[in-house]
Amino acid sequence: MESLETALKLAAASKPAEHIRNVCLVAHVDHGKTSFADSLVSANAVISSRMAGKLRYMDSREDEQTRGITMKSSGISLLCEPLLINLIDSPGHVDFSGEVTSALILSDIALLLVDVIEGICSQTEALIRQVIRNGQVMILVINKIDRLRVELKMSSSEAYQHMARLIEGVNSCISQVLGGIVLEDDTWGNIEEAEAKLHFDPAKGNVIFSSALHSYAFGCEDFATLAAEKMKVEKSILLPAMFGDFWIDSTGTIRDSAAAKNKATMFERIVLEPLWKLHDLGLVDNDVTSLSEAAKKLGFTLKSRRANEAFDELMRSWLPLPKASFRAVARAPNVRSTFETQHRLDHLTGHRLDHPLRPFVLGCDSTQITIVFVVKLLQTEDKSLNSRRAICRILSGTLRKGDKLYVLQQHGSSEVTSTKIDRISILRGRDTIPTDTVTSGMVCAIDAEILLQNTTLCSESDYPCLKIGSQTGEALVRVSVSTQQLDDMDELREKLKLLALLDTSLKVMELENGELAMVTAGEVHLQKCIKDLNDLGLVDLDVSEPIVPFMETVIEDVNLSAPQITEQETDCRIREALHIKLRIAPLGSTVIEFLDKNAILLSAIRRGEADQTEIDDFQKKLTLICTESLPTLKGTWWYRKPKDLIETMIERIWAFGPDRARSNILFNNVESYDRDLIWRKTEFGVRRYDQALVGGFELFCNSGPLCNEIMHGVAVIVEEWTVDEEDGAIGGQMMSAMKATCSAAAKKLALRLVAAMYKCTVTTASQALGKVHAVLSQRKSKVLSEDINEATNLFEVVSLMPVVESFSFCDQLRKFTSGMASAQLQFSHWQVIDEDPYWTPTTLEEVEEFGLKGDSPNHARGYMDAVRRRKGLPTEDLIVESAEKQRNLKKNK
Amino acid sequence: MSKNIKTPTNQKILTNVAVVRMKKTGKRFEIACYKNKVVNWRNKTEKDIDEVLQTHTVFSNVSKGQLAKKDELIAAFGIEDQFEICKIILDKGDLQVSDKERQAASDQSLKEVSQLIASMVVNPETKRPVPPSVIDKALQEMHFSLKPNRSSKQQALDAIPKLRETIKIERAKMKIRVAIPTKEAKAVHSKLKALFSEVEQDDWQDGSLEMVGLIEPGSFRALDDLVRNETKGHGRLEILSLKDVVEGELQIS
C-alpha cells in the first residue's frame, strides 16, 4: 500500500501528458456506474477483487449506501502503467444532473454505460447530448450482459440481434442529437463526417461488453485474438468482421450476409456461444466440475467450491474488466490531444476564438504558466471555514504546494485577488493522499482560502477567466427553513451559504418576508440537503412543506359581448387629488412566448444598458407580433382593434414588468399624457409621480389578486390619469392606489392560475400497469403516451403532472406497485389550469349536477387556498365542515 | 314496568345546540343553531342555512323547548314567517361563542399581531424584513398573551419593545423629503433636524431647504404639524417610502 502511494505521488508529479487520461462514468440511474467503478478500483488493489461490483466503494455517504444510488460525483486516481487514470463517478438520478455536469467538465473521456436490457433511457439521451456538445470522446459500455442469459434465457443469436439493435439505437440517438446541433451551429460542418467519428462500432474498439456485477468485460479484439490463435488466421483479418453480418465457413474464410443464409454470425460463434456456455455452467446449472474443466482448457485453475463463486473467479481472471476498459481508454485522446478537437476547446473558452489562454490549454505543458480550473467544492472534515477544498483540473503548468495563484476575473478587471494553495491531494475515492506537486492534466483536490466554483486560478494575473456555464435544470422544489432555537438562525444562514457553495444545484434565497429558503432540484435532492445540514450540526430544523411557485394570469372569455368588455374598466379616486382609470386585458400566448424569450433584453432595457439597434429590432418584432395576434383574441378588449391603434400603443408602452414577472406590459393610453418613450434614451422628462404609478404596477405584477403570486401575460392599459401635484400626501398613497386598482380591474376578468408541470416517465412491469394509472390519475396527471419496450416487456408511461401534486409521488408509486414501477420527473413547462378558482354552481342544472357545494372538488381553488393559507391571507375556511358530524362529547372526553 | 316511564314518541331531542338570543319588545326570542357554525354564517363563508339552523322554529326558551307565541312574534317582528324571523335573529342576535370559534378567533388575532409586527420591524443589521415565523416563536418565548379587549395594532406596538430583548429588531423607518421655502427655512431647520433620526441629504439652494432622511414612524405627525404650521402652508412634505427596507427576494449564494 505504501509503495502504491509513493508511486502515485511520483506519477502525479511527473507523468507526461500523453499518459494521463481523465475519464468519467455516466449513465442513466441504476445502469451500474458505481459497480463498474468498483472493478476498476480493484485493479489498483484498493479493494479486494472478490468484492468488486458489490461494495460500491465510491459511494462514501451513508445515505448513498442505504439508498443504493450515487448522489455526488467523486474521483479516484488509478495507476495502470504506463497510464495514470483519473476516474470520476457521477450520479445518474435526474435530481443530481448538476453533479454530472461538473464531472463532465473535469474529464475528456466519457464511459457511457447502458443497461443491455433497459436500453436507452431518458438520462442516456440527455447525457449523449451533453457529451457531444462538450466535444468529448465517448466509449459505449454495454453493461449487465449476463442478464441476457441468466434472466431472459436468450440464445446466442437472439442476444446478438438484441445487442446489435441496441448499438443501432444508440447510434441513431447520436445522429439525432448531431442533427439538432448542426442546425443550430454551423461550425460543426458536415454531419456525415461528425457522425462517422462518433458512431459506435464494436470493431472500432469503442464498444465494451461487460458485466460489472461479475467483474468481467471484453472488447471484440479479446476474442479475435483467441480465435486467431485457434484458427490460425491473421487477427487483422478477423477483427473487422467480428461484429456484423459475417460468418465463417468450415475452411476459415469469412463470408457476408449470415442472416440471409441462416448461419451463425462470427460474434455468435466466437464470442457468445462459449460465453453462454460458461454462464449456463456457472449460474444456471451450478455445475462446478464441468466449470473447472472448462477453466482448465482456458488455462486457469479454480479454487472456489461453489459454482457462482467459481464462475466469478474464472471470469475475473479470464476477461478482467479493468483490462478491457483501460485498453479502450488508452486508445482515447489524452489530456493534451483532447483539446485538438475544436469543440472541446471552444466549450472551455466560452466560444471565444481569441481567448488568450487558448495556446496554454492547447499546449498542456508542465513548464508553462499554471492554470487551474476549479470545478466542484468538497466538504471537509474539519469544520473550520477558513480553508476550502475543491476538485480541480490543472490545465497547464505544474502546481506546487504553497503556490500563490490569482483568481481570474471576467474581463481581466483591475481588482485581482490571489490565494495560497495550502494543500494538494490526490483523490482516492473515500480518502485522499496529500502530495506536493501535480503536473498538468491531472485532476486533484486542493485546499485554499479563496475557492469558488467555476473559477480559474492562474499564476499570471492579467488574463480573463475561462468560462464554463454549468447549466442546471430549473430548480422547483422550494422550502423555507428555520431553526427551532432562535439563536441558531445566524448559524443556519452561514451553513446554508456554505452548502450552496458546495452544491451547484442548490440555491439559497431570502424571501420577501425575510424567511430563508432552499431551492432544490427535486425531492431526493432536498432530502440530501437536509441531511447535509444535520451533519453540519444543525439538528432542530423546521422545514416547511414544499413551496411550489404558481403564476396568475387572466384569460379571454369568449362568452362576453363587446359592450360587456368595454365595461371592464376600473376607476379609482382619492379625494379630488387622484383619478386613475384603467383596464386589464390578456396578452395571448404568442405575445407571452415572445416576451419570455426576450427576458434578458427586457431587463437590459430596464437598466438602460441595451443596445439601440437591438431595442429597435425588438420593438419592430413586438409590433408585428402584436398587430397580428392581438386583434384575433376573441373575448378580449383587443378583439378587432385597428392595426394603427395597436401600433401607437406599442410605441407608447409605459413599462414592462419587474424582473421576476417580465411578461407583463403597462400601456399608456392616456391621451393627454406624453412621456418619454422607453424605446429611446432621450431626456423627454416624465410627470411627477410617474415612477410611483410604475411602482404600483410592479407591485401588482409581483403579487396578483388570487394568492399574491406573480402575474404572467397581463396588459394594464391606463386610460386616464390625473393627479393634483400640490397635494403632498398623495405621493405615499399613489403606489398602493395603483396596485389596488389593478387588482380590482383584474378581478373583473377571468383569473386563472398557471402551474409548473413535470414530465413524468414511469417504467413499469405489465402487471402493475393498472396501479400506475391509478396513482397517476390521483396525482391529476395527463397521460401522453404508453409504449411497451419489446426487449424488457416493461411499459413506459409518459405523462404531464402538476409540480404541486408530485410530492412523495415516487414513494407512493413504489408502495402501490410493490416496487415494480419507477419514475423520473423533469420540469417541462408552465400551463394554465383551465379551472376557475372562484367557480361555484349557479344555475339549477349545475346545482343538480354538482350539488350546492360542488361535490367534485375545485382543484384550482384548492391550490389557491393552500398558497393563501401559507402566506397568512384570509381564506374561506369553515371552522367545522358539516354541522351534524361534530362530536357530541365534552372536551375532556 | 313503572307507569311513570313514558317513551316520548313525538319529541326531537336537540344536541350540539348553540343558542342565539334576541330581546325585542321586552320578550326574549331564541333559535337553536349548531355549534361552531354561526360565526361562519355571519361572515358569509357558510352559505347553506340548514347547516346552521337546527330547526326553523323560533323559541322563547330553547333548553326548555318552549316555542315563541305567534302574537308575540308579530308584535316584535311584524311578520309571521318563522324562517324569516330565524334569519333576522341569526344575523342580529346575541351569540354564544363556541369553543372552536373562540380558538379560531384567537389564532387569527395572534397571527394578525405577528404579521403586524413583522410588517413594522426590520433587522437593524441587514435592513431586511423579519419573518413572521420568527416573531411567532419569539412571542411564544416571552409568554405573550392576547388581551381580547385591545386592538391588534395596540398589542403589536406594546410587544415590540419587549421583543427587542430577545431578537435583533427595530422599527422600520419612513423615508421622507421636506422642502421649505427661503423665508422660514432657517427658523425650522434645527427643529426639523431633531425629528429626523438620520439625514441623508441636507441641501440649501438659494436659501430654500430640501431635506431627505429617515424618521421614526411615530414622529410623522409631529413633523407634519411642524411643516404645516411653521411655514404657513408653503412647506412641502413628501413620503418617499413608508418602510425603509431592502425589499424583494435576495439570493444569498
From TrEMBL, chain A:
One of its GO terms (cellular component) is ribonucleoprotein complex. PROSITE patterns: G_TR_2. It comes from the Eukaryota. It comes from Caenorhabditis nigoni. Residues 18-241 form the Tr-type G domain. Gene3D superfamilies: 3.30.230.10, 3.30.70.240, Elongation Factor G (Translational Gtpase), domain 3 (3.30.70.870), P-loop containing nucleotide triphosphate hydrolases (3.40.50.300), Translation factors (2.40.30.10). InterPro entries: EFG_III/V, EFG_V-like, EFL1, P-loop_NTPase, Ribosomal_Su5_D2-typ_SF, Ribsml_uS5_D2-typ_fold_subgr, Small_GTP-bd, T_Tr_GTP-bd_dom. SMART domains: EFG_C. GO terms for molecular function: GTP binding; GTPase activity; ribosome binding. This is Elongation factor-like 1. The keyword Nucleotide-binding applies. Keywords: GTP-binding, Hydrolase, Nucleotide-binding, Ribosome biogenesis. GO terms for biological process: cytosolic ribosome assembly.
From TrEMBL, chain B:
Keywords: Cytoplasm, Nucleus, Ribosome biogenesis. Residues 174-242 form the Ribosome maturation protein SDO1/SBDS C-terminal domain. Residues 16-103 form the Ribosome maturation protein SDO1/SBDS N-terminal domain. One of its GO terms (biological process) is cytosolic ribosome assembly. It is found in: Cytoplasm; Nucleus. Pfam families: SBDS_C (PF20268), SBDS_domain_II (PF09377), SBDS_N (PF01172). GO terms for cellular component: cytoplasm; nucleus. Coiled coil: none annotated. The keyword S-adenosyl-L-methionine does not apply. SUPFAM superfamilies: FYSH domain, Hypothetical protein AF0491, middle domain. It comes from the Eukaryota. Its main location: cytoplasm. Residues 111-172 form the Ribosome maturation protein SDO1/SBDS central domain. Belongs to the SDO1/SBDS family. PANTHER family: RIBOSOME MATURATION PROTEIN SBDS. Associates with the 60S ribosomal subunit. This is Ribosome maturation protein SBDS. The gene is Cni-sbds-1.
